[in-house]
TrEMBL record:
<keyword id="KW-1278">Translocase</keyword>
<protein>
    <submittedName>
        <fullName>Lipoprotein-releasing system ATP-binding protein</fullName>
        <ecNumber>3.6.3.-</ecNumber>
    </submittedName>
</protein>
<dbReference type="InterPro" id="IPR015854">
    <property type="entry name" value="ABC_transpr_LolD-like"/>
</dbReference>
<dbReference type="InterPro" id="IPR017871">
    <property type="entry name" value="ABC_transporter-like_CS"/>
</dbReference>
<dbReference type="Pfam" id="PF00005">
    <property type="entry name" value="ABC_tran"/>
</dbReference>
<dbReference type="GO" id="GO:0005886">
    <property type="term" value="C:plasma membrane"/>
</dbReference>
<keyword id="KW-0997">Cell inner membrane</keyword>
<dbReference type="GO" id="GO:0089705">
    <property type="term" value="P:protein localization to outer membrane"/>
</dbReference>
<dbReference type="GO" id="GO:0016887">
    <property type="term" value="F:ATP hydrolysis activity"/>
</dbReference>
<keyword id="KW-0449">Lipoprotein</keyword>
<keyword id="KW-0067">ATP-binding</keyword>
<dbReference type="InterPro" id="IPR027417">
    <property type="entry name" value="P-loop_NTPase"/>
</dbReference>
<dbReference type="GO" id="GO:0044874">
    <property type="term" value="P:lipoprotein localization to outer membrane"/>
</dbReference>
<keyword id="KW-1003">Cell membrane</keyword>
<feature type="domain" description="ABC transporter">
    <location>
        <begin position="7"/>
        <end position="227"/>
    </location>
</feature>
<keyword id="KW-0547">Nucleotide-binding</keyword>
<dbReference type="InterPro" id="IPR003439">
    <property type="entry name" value="ABC_transporter-like_ATP-bd"/>
</dbReference>
Amino acid sequence: MKRNTVLKLSGVERHYGQGETLLSILKGADFTLNSGEIVALVAPSGTGKSTLLHIAGLLEHPDGGEVTINGNACDGLPDDKRTTIRRNEIGFVYQFHHLLPEFSAIENIMMPQMIAGLPRKEAKERAGQLLDYMRIGHRGAHRPGELSGGEQQRVAIARAVANAPSLLLADEPTGNLDPETASYVFDALEALVRQSGLAALIATHNHELAGRMDRRVTIADGKVVDF
Ligand SMILES: Nc1ncnc2c1ncn2[C@@H]1O[C@H](COP(=O)(O)OP(=O)(O)OP(=O)(O)O)[C@@H](O)[C@H]1O
């Protein structure tokens, strides 16, 4: 499979507060992620993993440097263009699934597709395929509250990739699960990434899962480094 650069961070800076409360979290961070690559972001609490993911996912602006997604330099773009790139190119998975509780699993996966303008029938077909792929095809009619934690996370992963993004950003996607379920959910995530050629950056405290990814990076002194 031909690999291309999906995400590029160049000299990214992020500071919070000022004066005595100034906190420099990212100090010229560089990072490149290619299609088909799964990278673990493993770093101690408070070093800036979520900050980095928010900046990479265009949810926050950096204070300096540049975020490039599929060749588009994003920081000078107006908000509506950033929203379009975020909606079309990026899928997010969080530690807590954030599924809509009043909708069924399949409806949760259909939602982003319908927001993007796909007809209901097609959205439902794709959502069904994704549920099958995540091995929970038989639970599509159930609401999140009726599913186990691992099943909820698999629905959240299916929802994140529903619009066929090129970049998947995950913040502790298995952090809320026991080790066995975490491993099972990661299997499903990995299969999906491998099959679709997505680029994935996954923040995790789980060293066993990190060991299964293609590459491991950490944040040290405000920079992204391999380890
Ligand atoms: N809006 C904010 N104002 C001030 N400080 C902030 C703000 N957001 C984050 N921080 C601080 O920046 C640092 C990095 O936060 P971040 O959430 O990115 O860390 P993390 O590595 O994801 O941590 P964890 O593993 O605990 O989730 C923390 O010390 C946090 O308190």
